[in-house]
Design goal:
Elements (H helix, E strand, L loop, with lengths): L4 E10 L2 E11 L4 E6 L5 H8 L7 E6 L2 E2 L4 H7 E2 L13 H11 L4 H14 L15 H11 L7 E5 L7 H16 L3 E6 L2 H7 L2 E6 L2 E6 L1 H8 L3 E5 L3 H10 L5 E3 L4 E5 L3 H13 L6 E5 L3 H9 L11 H5 L49
Bound molecules: adenosine-5'-triphosphate (ATP).
């Protein structure tokens, strides 16, 4: 069985700007791929291409087995698309809205009602199910927007920052929905700026930077790739401890405000090295903590636009003595480099995507 989403050397240019620059992605059924990236990395453009809102200018993308450029109608029938409620009568209730949409997806009256009730419950909309839409809050409309995209039980769901602006309870509820969708066999691609969200939800995280995937893997793999557990000690004699660690061949990072020294320690042997170096100088480590790398480190090392390109030696990382996140990507010249520095959205592209199209908007931004 082919993957639910497959892209191959996918590119989308807007005039001189390469919003997507050779993106290769695979999202199998039953899995969640979280796309992380800085502002302007190309996340929305990728979502727009996959949901047929904009056409690629190079490469290919297949969604649910259909090419997005050659068979956009077939793709649209199989993806979780939201935004429909914007075009509906504001006097309708959330329940009536969902029933109507389910019927438009070909369900009979009974089946449509039960699908609507299922979604109302899933999105915690039970209490407002019978309230007119015009009297519903922005958050409620947002959740309804997401629910509306699922009325047809899509096999591929693409969510652009689905939890941005949701309150914490709604956010957790949406995470449950996403996991449930994947358990039921759907492929979910979601973009997020929320690292906790990616950590909790993703089977795979892909890091997009300036239109290119610079790293992908499970959350655990990415964390292991940038890092680096660290040992932090809080000795009484900070300067003496720093000298002792350096004498032991280690590279401590002092934090005088906290009175701590931190040393990257990829293996347990290196944890021992820290203790031995201090012991050799008869220095008590004081408090000792061992910390695991987090996704925030992954983000800082890989996703921020100022990070050196994967094709360029990463001086910062090697200076800190931590493994270089770009190491495995080396050797690939960066064809997008010449596009850089072009002001964002300054140049109108050949075909401006209509992000606001109510009948084909994708879950997420601006829906509230
Ligand atoms: N219609 C357009 N015309 C010109 N440039 C565009 C257009 N749409 C996107 N771009 C440019 O393409 C690049 C990628 O933009 P995109 O919106 O996909 O990024 P993003 O990762 O979604 O960012 P954000 O998190 O800020 O929404 C940016 O440089 C952006 O300015």
């Amino acid at each position: 069985m082919t993957a639910a989403i497959e892209t191959e050397a996918l590119g989308r240019r807007f005039g001189p700007v390469a919003a997507l620059d050779g993106v290769d992605l695979t999202v199998p059924h039953g899995t969640v791929l979280c796309l992380l990236g800085h502002n302007g990395a190309g996340k929305s453009t990728l979502v727009d291409v996959l949901t047929t809102l904009t056409r690629p200018t190079s490469g290919r993308a297949r969604v649910a087995g259909y090419d997005v450029a050659a068979e956009p109608h077939r793709v649209r029938r199989r993806i979780g698309v939201t935004g429909q409620f914007a075009a509906l009568d504001d006097r309708l209730t959330p329940r009536a809205t969902l029933v109507l949409l389910a019927r438009l997806h070909g369900l009979g009256r009974r089946a449509a009602q039960s699908r609507a009730d299922e979604l109302l419950e899933l999105f915690g909309l039970g209490e407002v199910a019978a309230r007119a839409l015009r009297a519903c809050s922005g958050g409620t409309r947002r959740r309804l927007d997401l629910a509306a995209g699922l009325t047809g039980r899509p096999e591929v769901v693409v969510l652009d920052e689905p939890t941005a602006g949701l309150d914490p309870v709604s956010r957790l509820a949406l995470w449950d929905v996403v996991r449930e969708l994947a358990r039921d066999g759907a492929a979910v691609l979601l973009t997020t700026q929320d690292l906790a969200e990616a950590d909790r939800l993703a089977d795979t995280i892909a890091v997009l930077r300036r239109g290119r995937i610079v790293a992908s893997g499970t959350p655990g793999e990415l964390k292991a790739r940038v890092g680096s557990r660290a040992v932090t000690v809080r000795p009484a004699d900070l300067a003496g401890a720093e000298r002792a660690l350096r004498a032991g061949g280690l590279v401590p990072a002092p934090d005088p405000a906290r009175g701590t020294l931190t040393v990257a320690a990829a293996s347990s042997r290196q944890v021992g090295d820290v203790l031995r170096a201090l012991d050799a100088a008869a220095i008590d480590p004081g408090e000792l903590t061992l910390s695991e790398p987090g996704l925030d480190e992954v983000y800082l090392a890989l996703a921020t636009p100022d990070t050196p390109d994967p094709g360029v030696p990463n001086r910062d990382a090697s200076d800190r003595g931590v493994p270089d996140p770009g190491a495995s990507d080396r050797g690939t010249p960066d064809p997008g480099a010449s596009d850089r520095g072009v002001p964002d959205r300054g140049v109108p592209g050949p075909a401006m995507p209509n992000r606001g199209m109510p009948e084909r908007g994708v879950a997420g931004r601006g829906a509230a």
